[in-house]
Design brief:
Oligomer: single chain
Distance between the termini: 11 Å
Structural class: mainly alpha
Number of helices: 21
CATH class of the largest domain: Mainly Alpha
Radius of gyration: 26 Å
Helix content: 40-55%
CATH architecture of the largest domain: Up-down Bundle
Length: 522
């Protein structure tokens, strides 16, 4: 539901869905948000439908009843405001560290988009308030734990809603943590007294798990692209064969991700002096960690693309309950709050992130093994006196192993809640939250590989690689120096972790990623 005004960096919430690129810009804090005039009438119609139900005396779940197992309990009209306030307060039971500001931005944005679909029955002013918080850089303090990903992300969204009613806490743009009431005053608003269904509409929904999964997806894309560059560096360092990247091999199989990855690597190595220098070396086959980069990384890319399609749909979805349908005046209970699609998408991203790190770690081991790489043992000239990259590979192995445990699917777990009314849940919020740790782990592994591969290239330095690879080699050398003898490596590893997450990489790598592709998101 978006349209970008490039002159103002303003993203308009319209009747059109936000794209994956829009969502990445929201996450990065590159846009402000505004509600298009075309959306307001639908919001108003849904709000009036709810008011008509209250006036008529009809009993409708979520409007004038209790919640969950208490859905059959009728609540009198004089207690409806109290009902909504109690709902928000009673559900504010999260625990753990606050979610990061980029994730909270995504939550505010996607909740506003969901409400703007016109099926939630809230006042337009409530959506305006969410956008005002976003635009002012005010981020509600939302504990990271406490949702099972069904009936919506109830606890974390309750902490978001608390700020709107003047409760809870929020961080201002300058980092100061203030009360919810002060946060509202900072954007020129008084706390809301919630009307019928408004608290429930704010709490129901998959926005927290979706925001966390999108953040994981964007991080996964970053380390994926960096791993293709580090893989190309490793291939040059060991003077590996370019033949396995021949387009005809990949066309014969037909897997789109595989074809895209092979093409990207060929583009990266175009113009290399190293590639033709060993064309007749007699080496028949490289180990799988190099030879099968297209097959492994291509499969990861296909999974990321699938997950991105699921998540961009969910980011634009009306996922609260019940939903208001103004054309008939009906308010219908369903289960759009169940985050199973998000849980599956997060599990798929976890598999891809784990495999990107796993194959990169194997290339580090290959570089350090003189029998396979032809490079000095552990990539240092005076081995024995110096250990070189020996223990850096151990760190990579530890993190790759940790990711394998974290990659266990969360979506297959379920614990019933609410007196067995909510008897199957998705665990999507944890499935998505763990992606942050996994991306950071893989960034360290990929960063170590890039650093080790640059060392390998320099140890054999006679010829130049391609212009694209040489440019990245120079960028790496700006972060870390050649390892002539053992030194304190922890700062180098941290610098390369950040490189893996933020590298300014060639278009050949970025254009194959879902959020950079010119293909439509929906």
């Amino acid at each position: 539901m978006g349209k970008v005004d490039l002159n103002l960096n303003r993203l308009w919430i319209t009747s059109q869905p936000l794209t994956l690129d829009d969502l990445r810009r929201v996450h990065a804090g590159e846009v402000t948000l505004a509600l298009a005039e075309e959306v307001a009438p639908g919001l108003t119609r849904a709000y009036r439908t709810v008011q008509d139900i209250v006036s008529s005396g009809d009993v409708v779940y979520g409007i004038n009843t209790g919640f969950g197992k208490l859905a059959s309990t009728r609540i009198g009209n004089d207690h409806l405001a109290e009902l909504q306030r109690n709902l928000v307060l009673s559900h504010s039971v999260g625990t753990g560290e606050p979610l990061a500001a980029p994730v909270v931005r995504m939550i505010l944005a996607t909740k506003a988009v969901s409400l703007a679909r016109g099926h939630s029955g809230v006042r337009p002013a409530l959506v305006d308030a969410l956008l005002a918080l976003f635009n002012a850089g005010v981020t509600p303090r939302i504990p990271c734990k406490g949702s099972v990903g069904a009936s919506g992300d109830l606890a974390p969204l309750a902490h978001m809603a608390c700020v709107l009613i003047g409760e809870g806490e929020a961080a201002l743009a300058d980092g100061r943590v203030v009360s919810g009431a002060e946060a509202m005053r900072s954007i020129g608003l008084e706390p809301f007294v919630l009307g019928p269904k408004e608290g429930l509409a704010l709490l129901n929904g998959t926005q927290v798990s979706t925001a966390l999964a999108l953040a994981g997806l964007f991080g996964a894309e970053d380390v994926f692209a960096a791993a293709l560059m580090s893989g190309a560096l490793s291939l040059e360092a060991i003077q590996g064969s370019i033949k396995p990247f021949d387009a005809r091999i990949h066309a014969a199989r037909g897997q789109p991700g595989q074809i895209a990855v092979a093409g990207a690597v060929r583009t990266l190595l175009e113009g290399s002096e190293i590639v033709p220098s060993h064309a007749d070396c007699g080496r028949v086959q490289d180990p799988y960690s190099v030879r099968c980069i297209p097959q492994v990384m291509g499969a990861c890319l296909d999974n990321l693309a699938h997950a991105s399609r699921v998540l961009v749909i969910e980011a634009n979805a009306a996922s609260d309950n019940p939903l208001v349908f103004c054309d008939t005046g009906e308010v219908i209970s369903g289960g759009n709050f169940h985050a199973e699609p998000v849980a599956f998408a997060a599990d798929i991203i976890a598999l891809a992130v784990s495999e990107v790190g796993a194959i990169a770690e194997r290339r580090i081991a290959l570089l350090l093994d003189t029998g396979l790489s032809g490079l000095p043992p552990f990539l240092v000239r005076d081995g024995g006196l110096n250990s070189g990259f020996m223990i850096a590979q151990v760190t990579a192995a530890a993190l790759a192993s940790e990711n394998k445990s974290l990659a266990h699917p969360a979506s297959v777990d379920s614990l019933p809640t609410s007196a067995n009314q909510e008897d199957h849940v998705s665990m999507a919020t944890f499935a998505a939250r763990r992606l942050g740790d996994m991306v950071n782990n893989t960034a360290v592994v990929v960063g170590i590989e890039a650093m080790a591969a640059a060392q390998g290239i320099e140890l054999k330095r006679k010829l130049k690689s391609s212009p694209l690879v040489e440019a990245e080699f120079a960028a790496i050398r700006q972060q870390v120096a050649f390892l002539e003898r053992d030194r304190y490596l922890a700062p180098d590893i941290e610098a390369m972790r950040q490189w893996a997450l933020k590298a300014e990489l060639p278009a050949a790598l970025l254009n194959i990623l879902p959020s950079h592709s010119q293909e439509p998101s929906l």
